[in-house]
């Protein structure tokens, strides 16, 4: 389980095809001694199992295997050397639940429709020259959009985000400067694909309503 609070940005060092699997080597800032073989790490929202870990050139590097289902239903199949991915270690008992409960089981791929950047305003009302925010409009499949509600939660590329507006199969999110700085969203734009996991509570509420 995860919280959707990104704690590092990893870099894909290599991608190796192994039959129906792909093995990815990812560099990160985590302590290698703190990563056990078999540990779960969310890679842009996709929960993957660590199969090797080492220190290389002063960085921690871990290997994960992505199976055919993961490659087909997430963006992992499109990752190449140099790709940057949001990382989060698995939730421990006693950790702060700063986002919402995220399983790391991606529901599908959504796409950025548009991005609008604008400056924060200083106390005197003038736009700040140092920080900016960004509003993204995202489009999800109709099968998933029914689980997305205004002011609800959604995980996009592993980041727990609040839904601002909903219009049909599209919804908007507003990202503050901190989020843009510590996740891959700072470099995201229209047309980019994102892994999406809908809120587990919304999923079960919808299912309960259908049964009734």
- What is the helix tally? 4
The main sheet orders its strands as 10-9-13-7-8-12-11
Percent in strands = over 45%
Instruction: Indicate the structural class.
Output: mainly beta
Shape: globular
- Uncertain parts: none
Give the name of the CATH architecture of the largest domain. Beta Barrel
The residue fraction in helices comes out at 10-25%
Give the C-level CATH assignment of the largest domain.
Answer: Mainly Beta
Assembly type: single chain
Number of strand elements: 13
Terminal-residue CA separation: 29 Å
CATH topology of the largest domain: Elongation Factor Tu (Ef-tu), domain 3
**Rg, alpha carbons:** 18 Å
Largest sheet: 7 strands, antiparallel
User: How much is the average pLDDT?
Assistant: 92
Provide the domain count: 2
Order of helices and strands: EEEEEHEEEHEEEEHEH
Report on this model:
13% of the residues lie in helices and 46% in strands. The chain is mostly beta strands. The protein has a seven-stranded antiparallel β-sheet with strand order 10-9-13-7-8-12-11. Strands 1-2-5-4-3-6 form a six-stranded antiparallel barrel. A hairpin with a 2-residue loop joins strand 3 and strand 4 (46-56). It is globular.
In short:
The protein is mainly beta and 212 residues long. 13% of the residues lie in helices and 46% in strands.
Features:
4 helices; seven-stranded antiparallel beta sheet; 2 domains; mainly beta; six-stranded antiparallel barrel; about 210 residues; Elongation Factor Tu (Ef-tu), domain 3
């Amino acid at each position: 389980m995860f919280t959707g609070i990104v704690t590092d940005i990893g870099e894909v060092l290599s991608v190796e095809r192994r039959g129906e699997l792909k093995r990815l080597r990812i560099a990160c800032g985590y302590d290698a001694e703190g990563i056990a073989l078999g540990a779960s790490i969310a890679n842009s929202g996709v929960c993957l199992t660590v199969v090797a870990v080492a220190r290389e050139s002063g960085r921690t590097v871990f290997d994960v295997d992505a199976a055919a289902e993961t490659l087909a239903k997430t963006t992992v199949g499109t990752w190449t050397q140099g790709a940057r991915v949001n990382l989060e270690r698995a939730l421990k008992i006693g950790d702060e639940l700063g986002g919402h409960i995220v399983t790391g089981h991606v529901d599908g791929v959504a796409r950025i429709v548009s991005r609008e950047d604008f400056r924060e305003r200083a106390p005197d009302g003038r736009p700040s020259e140092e920080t900016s925010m960004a509003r993204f409009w995202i489009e999800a499949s109709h099968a998933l959009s029914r689980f997305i509600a205004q002011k609800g939660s959604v995980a996009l590329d592993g980041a727990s985000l609040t839904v601002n507006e909903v219009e049909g199969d599209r919804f908007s999110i507003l990202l503050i400067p901190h989020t843009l700085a510590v996740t891959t969203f700072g470099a995201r734009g229209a047309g980019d694909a994102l892994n999406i996991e809908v809120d587990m509570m919304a999923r079960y509420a919808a299912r309960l309503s259908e049964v009734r």
